[in-house]
Specification:
The chain has 320 residues and is an alpha/beta fold. It folds into 2 domains: 167 residues, Alpha-Beta Complex (Quinone Oxidoreductase, Chain A, domain 1), CATH 3.90.180; 126 residues, Rossmann fold. The protein has 10 helices and 18 strands. Strands 3, 5, 6, 9, 10, 17 and 18 form a 7-stranded mixed beta sheet that branches. The longest helix is centred in the middle third of the chain and has 13 residues. The protein is globular, with a radius of gyration of 19 Å. The protein starts with a strand and ends with a strand. Bound molecules: zinc ion (2 copies). One zinc ion binds next to helix 4.
């Protein structure tokens, strides 16, 4: 089968063997995949990953024959736990020390015709959610993780920094959940996507003010850039919370003294629950169509990855 494989000298298209599902796994035919900032970071060396790239997808269960979801359209959680440690026993495969992660750590990803995932990772999606929406499930789930970790956030004023896909989705998810949200970004056309959701957006840090002034009780860093953390801290009130959502390959130089002086809580936040994400797509609480800036066939994956890197591009999709 055709796959986009990351090796020492970068990503390239290859013919590789179709994967064989293990006893607890399903074979999934990939219908549509999304290129994520993490994929671009992996290419730059993050995690030292080698293998088939890609972790955002919607697919169709293609095997084994007796699989209860055979033929169903599914999305999938990307962390695959060992199934036998204390973390897995508590349902926290996302933190299993022996985990593999789809297209990120020790497991081939979804920029291919087929992929394999443990059956327990799969969630069927209803016909109400078309492929081009379902493919946003994984990043959307990551936005719900913030609410799972920090439920009081929905009663706070929250500044999201970053107008990439993650920042835009995060702002909408929190707004839909009841939080008062503003966004600090860079691109006028991206921030315009927030207008229908009553989410004010600014491009100048000094202008991004909440009811209490220039500093906010909660700031979410979703810039994907190393400098984002310092900006987030500078916009956070004493005793406030900074939520970190970016994973970047380069190491940031940080001055942590204001974190100490202002007694700021730093909350790292990664992958999240799929159920509320699927629900938000089903009910239309979050719409994604305007975020798609490119559609490519898998044969043109290298070109699609280049496109995803361009400024002002939110989401590029790949169809095997
Ligand atoms: Zn991702
Ligand atoms: Zn485990």
């Amino acid at each position: 089968m055709l796959a986009c494989v990351l090796e020492e000298n970068g990503p390239s298209l290859k013919e590789i063997a179709r994967p064989e599902p293990l006893a607890d796994e399903a074979l999934v035919r990939v219908r549509l995949a999304g290129i994520c900032a993490t994929d671009l970071e992996l290419i730059r060396g993050y995690m030292n990953f080698r293998g088939v790239l890609g972790h955002e997808f919607v697919g169709e269960v293609a095997g084994p024959e007796a699989h209860p979801l055979l033929g169903r359209r599914v999305v999938g959680e990307i962390n695959c736990g060992c199934g036998s440690c204390a973390w897995c026993a508590r349902g926290m495969e996302r933190h299993c020390p022996g985990r593999s992660v789809l297209g990120i750590l020790d497991r081939h990803g979804v920029f291919a015709e087929y992929t394999c995932l443990p059956s327990r990772n799969l969630h069927p999606v209803s016909d109400a959610v078309e492929d081009e929406a379902a493919v946003f499930c994984e990043p959307l789930a990551a936005c719900f993780e913030v609410i799972e970790q920090f439920p009081e956030i929905v009663e706070r004023e929250v500044l999201v920094i970053g107008d990439g896909r993650l920042g835009l989705l995060q702002a909408r998810v929190l707004r839909a959940a009841g939080a008062r949200v503003g966004l600090l970004g860079r691109h006028r056309e991206k921030m315009a996507l927030l207008a229908p959701y009553e989410i004010p957006a600014w491009s100048e840090p000094a202008q991004a003010a909440c009811s209490g002034g220039e500093k906010w009780p909660v700031v979410i860093e979703a810039t994907g850039a190393a400098e984002g953390f310092s900006l987030a801290v500078s916009k956070t009130k004493p005793r406030g919370v900074v939520v970190l959502k970016s994973t970047v390959a380069s190491e940031a130089r940080l001055n942590l003294s204001s974190v100490v002086v202002d007694e700021i809580t730093v909350l790292g936040s990664r992958c999240g629950p799929f159920e509320p994400a699927i629900q938000a797509l089903e009910t239309g609480a979050v719409r994604t169509s305007l975020m798609i800036h490119g559609r490519y066939s898998l044969q043109n994956a290298p070109e699609a990855l280049e496109k995803a890197r361009e400024k002002g591009i939110i989401k590029v999709l790949l169809r095997p």
